Amino acid sequence: MNQEPLLFIQTAFTGLFLLTLFGGGYLVLNARRFFGPDPDMPSENSSARSYSRIQALLVWLHAVVLTGAFALLLH
Q: How many CA atoms lie within 13 A of 1 on its CB side?
């Protein structure tokens, strides 16, 4: 079996995995800007902001698990 295409896929998913990790770090560092109070939305309360934060965290976590699984399990 030819291993070159598999090596390309492993490299691509490893790059995506690292990009996803750095994206999560960016999300954590700028969480206040992304999920903080919005003066244009006076009806938004802290529970709505928390819900949005949890949704973004869960999407990021799924992306980490999927890219990590493809990067590590394709050996």
A: 4
